[in-house]
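Progress report, Aim 2. The chain analyzed during this reporting quarter is listed below.
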Amino acid sequence: MKKIIRGSTIKINDPIHGFMVLPDFITEIVDSREIQRLMRIRQLSGASHVYPGANHTRFEHSLGVAYLAKRLSENLRDLQGVDISDDDINDCVVAALCHDIGHGPFSHNFESLLIKHNNKDHEDYTEWLIKKSEIGEKIEEFSFDKNYISDIATGKIIGKANEKGYLLSQMITSAVNVDSMDYLMRDNYHCGTEKATVDINRLLLSMDEIDGFLGVNIKALISLEGFLLSRISSFRTIYFHKTCRSVQMMLEEAMKSVVNEIGFLNYSTPEDFLKWDDYVLWTDLIRNPISAIWMEKIQKRELLKSCFESQIQISNENIDVSELREKISRKTGINAADIFIDLPSSPNVPYSHTDQTRPNEIYTFERLANGKKQPVHLEDHSIFFNNFKGSLKILRIYTWPKNRKKVADIASSLYDTILKY
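Predicted structure tokens for the chain:
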């Protein structure tokens, strides 16, 4: 077993957090194939077609999350008096560093195919890689329990709310977590939309353990609301920008067209999964004559065009996409294959990766004069929190430029009868 030298650190210069100070033992974990692969997976698939600076990767994000996990866990110990040891902090840092290694090429754009064909998401593959690939061996070399690290990273801690691992996991996976803090700041920075920045310093300082859960002091309400508003703003301006989604849909069509031929979803061993990144899959999609039709259009920026967009609503209801596509096809005479229905949705209020907490719940508390913490309901203090619950939804209809006007006219006429939801 390798020895962790207490107090020995490395410094990494980061455009978001400045110099990030991390324990130096993580260097060997960072140098693993599993983490290095993240250098070749962009954080935001398709976004660079709208925001030229959006070429950042899962690698830098993972380092940022590890850094924020260290800051938060140290704050809880040193400022709030939570019983967290140096070993606990290192567990949290390693789990945060590894939390995204299960992402496939094109990040979340790949997720729908993983779920549909393999019935697994990126967190399932994160767990698999930590437990079964070489990174697990590196983790164990420093006397970490790779199974425990996996559970913290993926929010799969099983047990009582007051268990230590449960609290550590919440730092990465709960309602207000360091993962979200980093990607909101990082994505907005690289897209040039950082004006509505997140005050993570205030949030980190205001967080504490209460009844086994990670909560936010209600005195930091303005910063907490800013965090939620930033998520909504990012949903609208970045993650579901109409052109970003156009590229993502075309990439997905390219992948779907050759999913069985190329075999990028068939993994017998971790090595089968790790060989796939943005570069490798993009090249294979270009070289295959079937998927090349889609890829060439992307490269020439001959993109699908949005011809209808519904009002943004918060709703838990669904719409039958296939039925809508067929109805538009019948009324326009356009082949249904040339009509694309996009119904992106995102939880307005962040929620945990698993059902650790009730959906859409953020734990808040106030500190009494005697120093004790008392739970409070966020909706009793925030003027708009109740309006955030549910999922933020936008319905868009895309087609090729030549069909745009015809589809737009029909979609508009159907709005009151079938599109409104």
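The first helix runs from residue 26 to 30. DSSP finds 19 helices and twelve strands in the chain. These observations will guide the mutagenesis work planned for the next reporting period.
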